[in-house]
């Protein structure tokens, strides 16, 4: 039988019982603590009627209690559904209504919101307030059963040992991503798929028990899977970046040094802020071994600066939608030129893939096509949505003997002469204007190379005359006086005439999603 994610904790508990598993500010949990507390939570859940395979919502800020909750739910034979702790209540309600968990684990600050949602939807029957004693919690009469720390403390840590047999085919977690219609999609990942990714990652990056991994991503973001499970698999330490600190680059720079971080993993935006505002020149990071980034394109001019500031570190560009875990990797060995496109690398994890042209045939080397992939890290599908699942996971059109499904990523790539995959953006970001095919990402790469532009987004606008035109939304450096004429002049030197933006707009800052990425949908809606 293949391993489950729980294998990692049981092994590290046996080998490193007193080692710090989780650190958050001044609080720590040893592997002994993590194993015991998660077993107590699992016992409580099972004793109070949670059945194997159920979904359990986690409405928690990043904290040691949240890591306990993750392993407690998994030990109970269920799958966890992390809820964005800073999401608008309407979005939370949409997710809870979609996956309908009967149990939600939360903390005292979040209790009023989730209680209100539970009361309205009637699907949530039980709440566990994991960080609060009953005497501190306020219960009001309702149909919802509420448990507190007191109840967890009384639960037997031993009772769970043989209570659930978790199979590699069982669901481990459901992560909700933004849907094109505004309805979040629940991506279902099994233990086997998650383990295939973690085993590859631990081996590729040589994560050891002496490592300290930053946990920058929120729990509802797929980057958190590496932070948590790669660390536990190695018996290493998860060092949680406190919520809200990401907006303070100097604080993050200090966090890396004071906590002896050896492995940093985040979206490029966080690293760009470190380069621009973190005063990295003041820091020496002797423990920092590797920086991993994923989730969006890292503007090459900032990656170059980072590599020059921290030349002793290994840099890796990772790619993979939530639906696939990470499926490509590229080690950046030399600082790239400002306008150079950094490859996403080659396929990993025993993943195979195809680049498919618009006519459904295989793309030739150098030709752009949509990336189709298959392998052990793929999702099971979208929760409760067979239609979207069947659209995304299809029969292999090119290999009849292998009946495993192929995932259509929706991402455009080409293979360069060295065999590296080059990312060209989403399929829906390829537009036609005046009869020309235009990749919006290519225009962004040029704009981001301008020395006085901090960030940019390029969006398509409907046009009666040309069908579609291009608009550029820019954030300029505060110490410059940049004008539209400067941008047009710069673009004319770098781009063909049909790719030069028709509109240029300056704003103070680009909006962000809760995962730290640029909120492209909000920007696009603001200019239509």
> How do the strands of the widest beta sheet line up side by side?
4-3-5-6-7
Radius of gyration: 24 Å
CATH topology group of the largest domain: Rossmann fold
* Helix fraction bin: 25-40%
Shape: globular
- How many angstroms does the end-to-end distance come to? 53 Å
Structural category: alpha/beta
How would you characterize this protein structure?
By secondary structure, the protein is an alpha/beta fold. It folds into three domains: 197 residues, 3-Layer(aba) Sandwich (Rossmann fold), CATH 3.40.50; 181 residues, 3-Layer(aba) Sandwich (Rossmann fold), CATH 3.40.50.12780; 94 residues, ANL, C-terminal domain (GMP Synthetase, Chain A, domain 3), CATH 3.30.300. It is built from 15 helices and 27 strands. A five-stranded parallel beta sheet has the order 4-3-5-6-7, with helices on both faces. It has a five-stranded mixed beta sheet with strand order 12-13-14-15-16, with helices on both faces. Strands 17, 18, 20, 21 and 22 form a five-stranded antiparallel beta sheet that branches. The longest helix has 17 residues. It is globular, with a radius of gyration of 24 Å. The model has no long low-confidence stretch (mean pLDDT 90).
């Amino acid at each position: 039988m293949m391993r489950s994610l729980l294998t990692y904790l049981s092994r590290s508990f046996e080998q490193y019982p007193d080692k710090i598993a989780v650190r958050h500010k001044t609080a720590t949990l040893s592997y002994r603590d993590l194993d015991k507390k998660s077993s107590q939570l699992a016992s409580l859940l099972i004793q109070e009627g949670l059945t194997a395979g159920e979904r359990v919502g986690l409405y928690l800020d990043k904290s040691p209690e949240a890591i306990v909750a993750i392993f407690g739910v998994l030990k109970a034979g269920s799958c966890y559904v992390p809820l964005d702790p800073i999401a608008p209540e309407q979005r939370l309600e949409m997710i809870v209504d979609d996956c309908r968990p009967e149990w939600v684990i939360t903390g005292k600050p979040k209790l009023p919101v989730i209680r209100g949602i539970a009361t309205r939807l009637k699907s949530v029957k039980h709440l566990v307030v994991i960080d609060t004693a009953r005497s501190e919690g306020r219960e009001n009469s309702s149909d919802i059963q509420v448990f507190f720390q007191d109840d967890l403390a009384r639960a037997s840590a031993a009772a769970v040992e043989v209570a659930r047999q978790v199979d590699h085919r069982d669901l481990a977690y459901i992560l909700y991503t933004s849907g094109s219609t505004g309805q979040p999609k629940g991506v279902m990942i099994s233990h086997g798929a998650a383990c295939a990714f973690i085993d590859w990652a631990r081996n590729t990056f040589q994560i050891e028990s002496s490592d300290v991994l930053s946990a920058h991503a929120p729990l509802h973001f797929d980057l958190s899977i590496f932070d948590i499970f790669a660390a536990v698999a190695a018996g290493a330490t998860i060092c949680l970046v406190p919520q809200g600190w990401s907006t303070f680059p100097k604080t993050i720079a200090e966090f890396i040094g004071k906590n002896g971080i050896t492995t940093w993993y985040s979206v490029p935006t966080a690293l760009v802020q470190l380069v621009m505002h973190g005063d990295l020149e003041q820091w020496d990071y002797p423990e920092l071994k590797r920086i991993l980034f994923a989730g969006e394109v890292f503007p090459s001019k900032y990656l170059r600066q980072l590599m020059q500031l921290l030349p002793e570190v290994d840099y890796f560009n990772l790619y993979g939608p939530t639906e696939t875990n990470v499926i490509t990797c590229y080690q950046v060995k030399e600082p790239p030129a400002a306008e150079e496109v950094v490859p996403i690398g080659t396929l990993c994890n025993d993943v195979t893939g195809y680049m498919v042209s618009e006519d459904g045939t295989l793309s030739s080397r150098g030709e752009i096509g949509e990336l189709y992939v298959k392998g052990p890290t793929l999702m099971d599908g979208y929760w409760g949505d067979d239609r979207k699942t069947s659209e995304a996971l299809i029969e292999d059109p090119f290999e009849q003997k292998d009946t495993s499904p192929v995932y259509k990523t929706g991402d455009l790539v080409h293979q360069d002469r060295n065999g590296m995959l080059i990312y060209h953006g989403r399929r829906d970001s390829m537009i036609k204007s005046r009869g020309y095919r235009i990749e919006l990402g290519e225009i962004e790469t040029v704009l981001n190379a301008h020395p006085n532009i901090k960030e940019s987004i390029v969006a398509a606008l409907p046009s009666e005359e040309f069908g579609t035109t291009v608009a550029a939304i820019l954030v300029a450096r505060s110490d410059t006086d940049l004008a539209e004429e400067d941008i047009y002049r710069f673009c004319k030197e770098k781009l063909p005439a049909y790719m030069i933006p028709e509109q240029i707009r300056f704003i103070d800052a680009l909006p962000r999603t809760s995962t730290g990425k640029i909120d492209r949908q909000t920007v696009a809606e603001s200019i239509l």
